[in-house]
Write a structure and sequence with these properties.
The protein has 2 helices and no strands. The protein is mainly alpha-helical and about 160 residues long.
């Protein structure tokens, strides 16, 4: 194997050192400055982005606080509106109940008046029936007709006793 021949080692080491030196020189001269420049730009850009991020976070926090304040104000306004609606509905309900009770009392009074009128009619009709019944009973018991004048004092004495 020729690469393991000891006689070729010095030339191989020479060219290895020359190539390594050229590569190191090229790296130090061209690649390292470009890489360091790119790294510096990235670091600077990251710093700018961090500052913008912090600024945006502060603005977001301010907006969040502002939204929270608006939300609290809206909640308070809604609660006030709901309470006012409840008060209005309660008043309306009370008015409707009062109107209903008034109509109910009026209707009850009308019914009581009708009942009183019907009672009077029934009493009058029953007195007439009682008069005829008394006349029929008297006639059946005595075989004599009852005179209309005899029944009248009994009616007035009954009314006075009532």
């Amino acid at each position: 194997m020729p690469q393991l021949d000891v006689s070729t080692f010095p030339s191989q080491i020479f060219w290895l050192v020359i190539c390594f030196a050229i590569l190191c020189f090229a790296m130090v001269t061209f690649l390292v400055p470009r890489l360091s420049h790119t790294m510096a730009e990235r670091a600077q850009e990251l710093q700018v982005l961090r500052q913008k991020t912090e600024q945006l976070m502060m603005e977001a926090n301010k907006l969040n606080d502002l939204n929270a304040n608006h939300l609290q104000a809206a909640k308070a306004e809604i609660h006030a509106t709901v309470n006012q609606v409840i008060i209005d509905l309660t008043k309306l309900k009370d008015e409707k109940i009062y109107t209903f009770e008034a109509k109910l009392q009026q209707h009850a009074k009308e019914i009581q008046d009708k009942l009183a009128q019907n009672k009077q009619e029934i009493l009058a009709a029953s007195q007439d029936m009682m008069g005829h019944l008394v006349q029929d009973m008297y006639q059946a018991l005595t075989d004599q007709p009852l005179k209309t004048g005899q029944l009248a004092p009994a009616k007035t004495s009954k009314k006075k006793g009532s």
